[in-house]
Every structure is written in structure tokens, then in C-alpha cells.
Design a protein that fits this description.
single chain; 4 helices
């Protein structure tokens, strides 16, 4: 695969990941709570959207990690690879570490439900920051590889 095609694929998969995060977090979940009268049902819809986004994030992240490692580079230039790993980490941490606690707190009407919601939002935001930073660094990584 030539360098230009490699770069285009990396942009494509990163754009799908970042766009999915934005669509679910900024459109899908808020819309569910805006139009579904039962808040628990709205939470189930939003939870399903976030779960599907996590699956997509892991798949897209693995593909991006493989594309990044296809061309070995020195550790000082490996920032894009570590940003992808960070995005995968935060996706998995959110879905399987934070969200189960959020759901349990919400179902039990626990006073710490707000804290768990804030933690879930923070982890989701950190995932988006990793992917955004990855996209931002792609042109510099391409210059390093091509010598431009």
C-alpha cells in the first residue's frame, strides 16, 4: 500500500470514530432524553447507543493501531499509535468500568449517580480528545514518513 493510500485510510477510520463519538454524544443521547417521556427508557436507548459506539471504537481503534504499526517508527514519533491505544482504553474503561456502576446507581436512585454520570462523561470526552489529537497529528506523522 502506498503512503498516500495509507494516510487516507487512517483519516477515514479516525473520522468515522470521531464522527460516531460526536453523533452519539451530542445528538443521539440528548435526543433520546428529549423525546422519550420515560427517563429510564431514554437511558436504555442512550446506553445502547453508547454500547454500539464502544464496539465501533474498539474495531476502528484496532484497525488504526494495525495501520500505525505497519510502518515501524521510533518511539519519539509513535505518538499517533499511543493516542489510538488511549482511545481504545477509554472506550473500554467507560463501557465496562464506569457504565455498570452508573447503571447500578441510577436503578437504585443512589446519591452518587450524578458522580458516576460525570465520570462516564469524562471518560467519553477523554476518548474523543485522544481521537481528535490523533487526527490533528496525522499530517505531521505523514511528513515524517514521507520525508516531506
Amino acid at each position: 500500500m502506498n503512503a498516500l493510500m495509507h494516510l487516507r485510510l487512517r483519516f477515514l477510520f479516525a473520522a468515522l470514530w470521531l464522527g460516531g463519538l460526536a453523533a452519539v454524544g451530542l445528538i443521539g443521547a440528548p435526543t433520546a432524553f428529549a423525546i422519550v417521556p420515560d427517563k429510564m427508557l431514554a437511558a436504555m436507548v442512550a446506553s445502547r447507543l453508547f454500547y454500539l459506539m464502544t464496539l465501533a471504537a474498539v474495531i476502528l481503534g484496532i484497525v488504526l493501531a494495525l495501520l500505525e504499526r505497519r510502518h515501524a517508527q521510533p518511539l519519539s514519533a509513535a505518538t499517533p499509535f499511543f493516542l489510538v491505544l488511549g482511545g481504545i482504553f477509554f472506550a473500554v474503561l467507560g463501557e465496562f468500568g464506569v457504565v455498570p456502576n452508573l447503571i447500578q446507581a441510577a436503578v437504585n436512585h443512589a446519591p452518587n449517580a450524578g458522580m458516576w454520570h460525570a465520570a462516564a462523561s469524562l471518560v467519553y470526552l477523554l476518548q474523543a480528545v485522544c481521537v481528535f489529537a490523533y487526527v490533528w497529528k496525522l499530517p505531521a506523522a505523514a511528513e515524517w514518513r514521507t520525508g516531506a
